[in-house]
Amino acid sequence: MGTEQSASQVRVQLTTSQPDIVLPERTGAILVNTNFRRYALSSLVNTILENEKPVPFDFLIGGIFLRSSLDDYITHHGISSETTLNIEYVKAAIPPVHLASFEHDDWVSSVDVLSATSPARGCASQNREMPGHERILSASYDGLLRVWNMSSRTTATSPAAGNGGHLSSIKAAKFVSPSRIASSGTDRTVRIWKYHEAPGDLPTVMSPHIELYGHQASVDSIAVHQPSSRLLSASADHTLCLWSTKISDAPAAPDSSLPANSSRGAKRRKLGPAVSTSQRGCLSSLKSHTAPVSSVIFAPNDPTVAYSTSWDHGLKTWDLPTSTPIDTRSTSHALLSLAAITHLNLVAAGTSARHITLIDPRASATNIVAMTLRGHDNAVVSLATDPNSTYGLVSGSHDGTCRVWDVRSTKMDKEGRIGQSMYTVGRESINGESRTAGEGVKVFGVLWDPDIGIVSAGEDKRVQINRGKDIGSHAQS
Questions:
Q1: Type and span of the H or E element at 38
Q2: Closest CA to 427 of 101, 32, 85, 58
Q3: Distance from C-alpha of 108 to C-alpha of 268, rounded to nearest angstrom
Q4: For residue 307, what is the DSSP state?
Q5: Which parts of 62-141 are beta strand (E)?
Q6: Which of 18, 81, 300, 455 pairs with 11 at a CA distance of 20 to 30 A?
Q7: Under 8 Å between Cβ of 27 and 100
Q8: CA atoms within 13 Å, Cβ hemisphere of 443
Q9: Has this prediction a pTM greater than 0.70?
Q10: Strands 416-420 and 410-413
Q11: How far apart are the C-alpha atoms of 349 and 329, rounded to whole Å?
Q12: Best-predicted range by mean pLDDT among 193-202, 252-261, 458-467?
């Protein structure tokens, strides 16, 4: 009988790195039934902590979330029931709920946020943006940029084409700083805008500042490094360009790239009686891809290095000072989106084959693919990391959903261990209705801001905001 009892129980040592949920010092190894799953373990931790209101917890063994019973885990890994299992517990993420949607006149291609923690703030001393005064930037297929407040009111709109605006659809937009915005589109240009919010009831101004010429096709992705005043762009012409966001640092635009109505050799374009804009070229053009370049980012810890993805199935690492590709990782599918998971030295790439590939871009890496994340039903066209997490990211797909991932949430599949999403965020515009392949609700862009939440843009002509209390708060463990 004693043998039967020991076989159905196992000792566990519960630990956490979150100081507000640490067990009392006297707590040692605990004997629990091997049929315990997450819920029973969570109840156990709440009992020991004497929580009046139960807190949901997640549990990790060997850095992987427990998604089965302890017995299944022990059997699968060939562990003796006499072994003490070291189990880490963390506060569970809460499903993101819909907060607001901002309606547009056409498809919304891209979103960005200006908040107290935005990269665009850099080391700037301007610190007006406090809770409640965050701004959301949206780019639309109608050729306009819009800045929104958190009350879903448009505070500024970019000028139309005749007054210095884009000539056609905008594909990407970023805050460069609290007073500058960058955008790019199918008119083959990158544009820098001045943005100024006047006090009181005075109007907010978004005015043309610089037109950047150098690409020969649609410019579909941009990345900004605010401290160095540098900007990267990725184009359907198979190239990338490196630009300066300062007029004084930017070379003249090449005559061959200027619009037909510009004077050859002109440095400024007259837009109206009192408005003109500077025309500039790129610092360097980066050529190596053999198909449209879908996405580009600066390396998180080194602004002289960049990563790019392309329809040619490749992830390239670039040395920007020399405009040289220093490494290429080839995959089996077109790569459409990109995000860096800094803590793990990985780059996440969304694919046309509906999955996300985690790639180690370091030259010393022996395996190209570190892990595959599966769950989407259509192309994964946008990625952003969880700002509160060292393991999390969010993806946007043409299937009409965003998915929240933690790379420690995995399951076994016929191809081995694969990542599975924690939560799925649908488009509020269809109220839970299922759409084949995301018809009418494709997601085109997504980001994750610690103050605002998950912000996504889509074919339903909306910017959507979702937020879950405590999402990502466990991931520093």
A1: helix 38-49
A2: 101
A3: 30
A4: E
A5: 64-65, 85-91, 97-103, 108-114, 135-140
A6: 18
A7: no
A8: 34
A9: yes
A10: antiparallel
A11: 11
A12: 458-467
**DSSP state, residue 104:** -
- Distance, CA of 149 to chain centre: 21
**How far is Cα 349 from Cα 328, in angstroms, rounded to an integer?**
14
What does the DSSP 8-state code read for residue 84?
P
Q: Quick one: CA torsion of 240, 246, 247, 250, rounded to 10 degrees? A: -40
Instruction: For the chain, give the mean pLDDT.
Output: 90
Please choose, from the candidates 207, 162, 171, 163, the residue with its C-alpha nearest in 3D space to the C-alpha of residue 189: 171
- The pLDDT, as a whole number, for residue 25 is 84
And the tokens for 339?
A: 């995000």
Distance between CA atoms of residues 338 and 357, nearest Å: 10
- Distance CA(357)–CA(371), nearest Å, equals 6
Burial of residue 150 (number of CB atoms within 10 Å: 0-12, 13-18, 19+)? middle
Block residue for tokens 């630009």:
243
Q: Is 197 left (phi over 0), alpha (psi -120 to 50) or beta?
A: beta
- Would you state the structure tokens that stand for residue 255, as one six-digit string? 């005559």
| Residue from 308, 331, 336, 289 nearest 446 by CA | 336
For residue range 265-319, list pLDDT tens digits in order.
455 665 554 457 899 999 999 999 999 999 999 999 999 999 999 999 999 999 9
Q: How far apart are CA 187 and CA 214, in angstroms?
A: 11
Question: Side by side, which strands form the sheet with 230-235?
Answer: 219-225, 230-235, 239-244, 284-287
User: Per the structure block, which two tokens stand in for 55?
Assistant: 């807190």
